[in-house]
Design a protein that fits this description.
This protein has about 160 residues and is mainly β. Helix content is about 5%, strand content about 45%. Strand 6 and strand 7 form a beta hairpin. This is Phage tail protein.
């Protein structure tokens, strides 16, 4: 633990199965229930620089931060869903209307439903939308996967 941090035994270890997603400006909150979220992460790109005359090592200088795309999985939603309508403007709209990115938050919840960790994603929009395969020999829920890229993110808690 870092100096000044306190460990709350009610939330340790943090569960990964209890979470919620909030699309800022979405009126239908029930439309943002997901089975799985993955891809939350950032990476610092570097430039490798070699010193003239010294061949034993190189310097790695920070260049830019890259963010991985965030992937959401859930059961296939109804056509009037906020998220489905928003994705359709990107994939089926022929770019006739302005494409509107959205801000969103992912909240990891504790046992009592309180937010214990939170990430914000700014100017997100869908870049991939697919449906998992169908199998006649399995009795499973049909799953859709929505992948979003975004301008930047931050961890709030």
């Amino acid at each position: 633990m870092m100096p000044g941090e306190t460990q709350n035994n009610d939330i340790w270890p943090i569960p990964a199965f209890y979470f919620k997603v909030a699309f800022h400006g979405a009126k239908n909150k029930s439309d943002t229930a997901f089975q799985e979220i993955s891809g939350i992460g950032s990476q610092l790109d570097t430039d490798e620089v070699f010193e003239g005359g010294e061949n034993r090592f190189s310097y790695h200088l920070p260049k830019a931060v890259k963010h991985t795309n965030v992937v959401f999985k859930r059961g296939i939603a109804e056509l009037d869903s906020f998220l489905v309508k928003w994705c359709k403007t990107f994939f089926e709209g022929d770019f006739k209307s302005p494409l509107v990115p959205k801000d969103l938050s992912v909240h990891l919840l504790g046992e009592k439903g309180t937010v214990i960790r939170s990430w914000n994603f700014f100017q997100a929009y869908p870049v991939n939308w697919k449906v998992d395969g169908f199998h006649s020999t399995k009795n499973e829920v049909a799953i859709e996967e929505i992948e979003l890229c975004y301008q930047y993110s931050n961890r709030v808690m």
